[in-house]
Design goal:
Blueprint: E1 3-6, E2 15-25, E3 30-35, H1 40-43, E4 49-53, E5 64-73, E6 76-81, H2 87-91, E7 97-101, H3 104-109, E8 113-115, H4 116-119, E9 123-126, E10 129-139, E11 144-150, E12 153-158, E13 166-168, E14 173-175, H5 195-203
Parallel strand pairs: 1-8, 9-14
Antiparallel strand pairs: 1-2, 2-3, 2-7, 3-6, 4-5, 4-7, 5-6, 9-10, 10-11, 11-12, 13-14
């Protein structure tokens, strides 16, 4: 899993995106949690405080939440927050993204965590050829996207290990192994001659 750190979400503080609240669970304020961190037991300790990323119209806009309890129930991560004591309150937090303040020393020792500004400007390398450059990082609920400028186009590259296996800040580059069609248009089916058609043509009498 790849974590992206932002300096911009909370008045210049370093913050790490650690999860998204996906569904109210039960009647006592619990919420199922989609994890964006490899260390949930360390992140979601009682008393941990999170900044909320929610729409401006949300009653939670500009507020924080504090963990009351964290559990794994039937294979699902479930979190309880102070002051969120019933299902109605929990449902008002669904789809909120959780960010936690970090100090630089802690982030430096965490695997697979980078600041946005460290990623922007990196060369994007595919098969040892530079195919573009990272121009920004978009934080979406499901995942982070690297926006890669290649020629006159901007390509959205999911920032997951399967597609971005290597980030080398010191070398100023990252390596991508994208699926077919991400960086180039796939040929239409009509443009590719069928093998059977070629064989039939070759066998046809003069």
């Amino acid at each position: 899993m790849t974590d992206v750190v932002s300096r911009e979400r909370n008045q210049g503080k370093n913050q790490l995106r650690v999860g998204r609240l996906v569904k109210a669970h039960g009647l006592k304020g619990a919420l199922k949690l989609e994890l964006y961190t490899d260390n949930p037991e360390r992140r979601f300790v009682p008393g941990a405080e999170f900044t909320l990323q929610v729409p401006e119209a949300s009653p939670w806009h500009g507020k924080t939440v504090t963990v009351r309890d964290y559990r794994v129930m039937n294979g699902n991560s479930v979190v309880f927050f102070q002051g969120v004591d019933d299902r109605t309150a929990a449902e008002s937090l669904v789809r909120a993204i959780l960010w936690i303040d970090q100090d630089a020393a802690e982030i430096d020792v965490e695997d697979n965590a980078w600041f946005d500004h460290q990623l922007v400007g990196l060369d994007v390398v595919r098969d040892e050829v530079v195919v573009g450059r990272v121009v920004r990082v978009d934080h979406l609920p499901a995942q982070d996207l690297l926006i890669v400028k290649t020629g006159d186009q901007e390509i959205m590259v999911p920032f997951v290990e399967a597609i971005v296996p290597t980030v080398d800040i010191a070398a100023g580059r990252l390596v991508v192994t994208p699926p077919a069609g991400l960086f180039e248009e796939l040929p239409d089916a009509d443009d590719v001659p069928a093998a059977d058609d070629d064989a039939a043509t070759a066998d046809a009498p003069e």
